[in-house]
Specification:
Blueprint: E1 8-14, E2 21-26, E3 38-45, H1 58-61, E4 65-69, H2 75-84, E5 89-93, E6 119-122, H3 124-137, E7 142-146
Parallel strand pairs: 3-4, 4-5, 5-6
Antiparallel strand pairs: 1-2, 1-7, 2-6, 3-7
Amino acid sequence: GLRIHEYLYFQVLSPGDIRYIFTATPAKDFGGVFNTRYDQIHLVPADPPEACGELNNGVFIQDQIALVERGGCSFLSKTHVIQEHGGRAVIIADNAYDNDSFYIEMIQDSPRRTADIPALFLLGRDGYMIRRSLEQHGLPWAIISIPVNVTSIPTYEMMQPPWTFW
């Protein structure tokens, strides 16, 4: 995968008001890695947001990436739910909406279980802003590019979220 200091980057392409490059951290000891770069793939907010059981919008998760909210069950359990619905990866946003700097280390909860799809942790503020933009525009998902190799982008061209310090 395209990791720098254990960060992975993705860019929201649509909606335009959140067309930024976001930083996420991969799960520490479970989940797969990105062997493919997706230039345009849907980032679908899970319904219910915590994705601890059956999803109401599971059909939209298939072959896409799910945006899930922290809480209710383990990170590994959420990853399993998305994998069972055919998701390519899961991005788990912190449920502390004001968190704009503290990354949580996602670890497995059982040595007998694992997951094959990539699982990433996203800051709560970033997840909140993505979901809020989708709600404001009445959109069922965002279109993203993942992973993004930020080493090839000049610093002055990197569109970073204005609410996040890099």
